[in-house]
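User: I'm writing a short methods note and want a consistent example. For Gluconate kinase (FGGY family), I'll paste the sequence; you return only the structure tokens, no commentary, since I'll be parsing the reply automatically.
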Amino acid sequence: MTNLLGLDIGTTSAKAVLFQLDGTVVAENEQPYPILNPKNGWAEQVPTQIEEATIHAVNQVMTHINQHQLIGIGLSTAMHSLICINEDGTALSNAIIWADTRSSNESEQLDSSIYLSTGTPLHPMSPLSKLTWMKNQDAQEYHEASYFVSIKEYLLYRWFGEKVVDYSMAAATGLFNIHRLNWDDQALRAAGITTSQLFEPKPPETILQDIDSNIAKRMNISVKTPIVIGGSDGPLANLGIGAINPGETAITIGTSGAIRQFSREPLLDTKQEIFSYSFTEDLWITGGPTNNGGIVLKWIQEVVSNEHYEYSMDELNQLASSVSPGAEQLVFLPYLNGERAPFWDGKAKGSFIGLTPSHNKSHLIRASMEGVIYSIYHIGHALERLGNQHDVIYASGGFARSELWLQILADTFGKPVKIPNSHQSSAWGAAWLALCGIEKYQLEDIKDSIPMSHEIEPQNSHHKQYQKIFSVYQKLYYQLKDTFHELS
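Assistant:
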């Protein structure tokens, strides 16, 4: 039996998932690592901790098969991380991740025309803003660095000695011209760096071999195992769930969340509400991320629990299910970590609107879950403005384990939601890209190799209720924006 390995290096953990060629999961292993918050608004991770977690996750799933049964490995990685490294690949800084907002002022001062070349909204999530902050702060690591890389390039350089980056990871930096598929001169000038300090952009099917023998031994793989550089977790989640054609929308909610569609050309406009990243030479991924997905449910879990009792996620779902759609006119703005699309405002704040004495913890939980979906729905409206339709929705990520959250999604959009058997869509997308690179499969062939679980139909009465609440929700940010900024 032959197998593929999808390696998904995310915000909070590294996941190694072993698949059969039909998409069936053979084994999976997840290894967590912490997010550090050394100062208010800072979010960092230790690169060596991520590397160790990644190696261990691969090692654990490889105990289920022999080395010769593995066709190859595909990589999926979270976007927007920035690490300063020296010539031998040693990290001079922690990885500054997407949730870091230290460069809010820099992102506001950047020339807005850069967006029309890069497709990356000007926001503190992007390495462009982070590099500009480092330049303005005269940071020592900035001056000493030989290269500026994401966590994926960091690992590939250490494992193979290769200086390569796939198109979608490059596009997520805000330094990459998505029309010409190379580094953008205007963005580089703003960041104060040169092309020589970045790695060479390559198609996602690019194969690397001859991994460092010590790394291969620790992973329990052959040094000849082909590793395909893959892409970022967003487009790979679309691929892994089969949302490839027009009208097929993928919604992923893990720690954060996103709504995305593939397009045959970049979709950009001056409002800068959404991103448009390169994926292959003739495919772009268009959509928008929210900073606040599963992290909101984790937060409300801590709020309603106490030192004597912690509610489980199942109990949170049960409590929320006891409340009718709309949480009895309680609305939650889920901007706990600022917000990306469609506002791109790191100073936005979370807020409950409409609290009365009749509301209890069940209402707070349901309103929190609904607020995350409203945020996704809001971004969906921006996509529709640019011509994208949401005919069928494919759901992936940790939230897909909650039938209630999926029903809220279907009811809010008023569209059916398709659910795969495996929630590891980014990993399957990465594994499939490995198959495309090694065996010359086509991207669209994956549609025959995605084991689907079930489909959730929207309830019309609930959809009408959510439309009423959303008409209030979508105005609240603009009404409170000045207040949010004053509080910051």
